[in-house]
Amino acid sequence: MRNVSKWLAVFATMAFISCGDEKKEKETITIGEDNTLEQVETTESTTMTDNAVSEGEAVISRDGVTEVRLTGNDQMKFNLKEIRVKAGDKVKLTLTHVGQLPENAMGHNFVLLKQGTDIPEFANKAMEAKDNEYIPQNSEQVIVNTEMIGGGEETSIEFDAPAAGTYDFICSFPGHYVQMQGKFIVE
Ligand SMILES: [Cu+2]
Question: Where is the signal peptide (predicted)?
Answer without folding.
Answer: none
